[in-house]
Amino acid sequence: MCLVREGAPTVHDQAGELRRIVRTRRKNIKGLSGLRSIAVLSGKGGVGKSNIAVNLAMAFAASGKRVVLLDADLGMANVDLLCGISPKYTLAHLVKGQRTVDDVLVSLENGVLLLPGGPGVQELAELDDDAQSLLIDKLSVLEGVADILLIDTGAGIHKNTLSFGVAADMTILITTPEPTSIRDAYGVLKTLAINTGSKIDVTLVVNMAASHSEGREVAERIQMAANQFLSLSVPFGGAVLLDESVGKAVRMRTPFFLANPSCRASMDIAEIAVNLASMDDETEPPTGRGVKSFFFRLARNLGLGV
Q: Is residue 74 within 8 Å of 160, Cβ to Cβ?
């Protein structure tokens, strides 16, 4: 299973262990400006977006990155199902002041920390300015426990979903080789480009490809259209091939990267994590990077369009 439960016979002991992990990570912090926010979007459902997000978090962690995974799919949140867990608290409890960040965070295998979003994401937008600032101050502790804030968003072009892409330092757009998926992925790119003046960092990942060459061909079609009609350069992060191990892992409610590290999909997701990290190394950190900047931008955009 994905949740670390061994050796923790009581809820009290589990909470204590999580707090110990968080305290240890805070001691190891090097600065407060390096955390990178990455939103994972898709044009339509059924393309494996959440599965990519979960396993990418595991791959980042395996490479030595400290990761907080935010489940921000307002309609079909299912990271918990993919990890075989049932979170007791969500971001909504934090918004209402009922729990602390440490209470809400859930420890997964590979050292990944899950922040269940649920209805708390929308409630963030409904707070007044003072309450938002107070909440975001509380969330700023994530700076000390993570190098990457990876956000699994909803599918489609709903304004609240796209707000995450606009607020994040980088957006990963998931598509498959199916024509409808390609069309809808381009629709997301078009909306993001219009609302940001084509000033947004988007990387394509092709899921369920029959081969790596097919993945590249799909990416090239989208890249050409985005460059010609949107004046938007869209790097190709990689492709995840069709692999029966993925379906087996979903039924086991365990990330495939952990269930079968040597399968094709796991090797592909590991390579994508390396590609994304190299893209980050080649550029200077954007102005306003970090947890506070991300959540302030998100709160400003949620419910208001992007």
A: yes
- Single pTM value for the model: 0.86
List the domains of the chain with CATH numbers: 49-168+286-301 (3.40.50.300)
The enclosing H or E element of 299 equals helix 291-301
> By the 8 A CB rule, do 117 and 77 touch?
yes
Average pLDDT score over the chain: 86
Nearest 10 degrees: CA dihedral of 249, 261, 35, 47?
A: -40
What is the Cα–Cα distance from 103 to 97, expressed in whole angstroms? 11
Token pair for 283: 């550029």
Residue 286 identity (one-letter amino acid): P
Give the tens place of pLDDT for each residue, 97-155. 899 999 999 999 889 999 998 777 777 777 888 888 888 899 999 999 999 999 999 88
Bridge partners of residue 236, in order along the sequence: 204
Which residue type, as a one-letter code, is found at position 150?
A: L
DSSP string, 83-101: HT---S--HHHHHTTSS-H
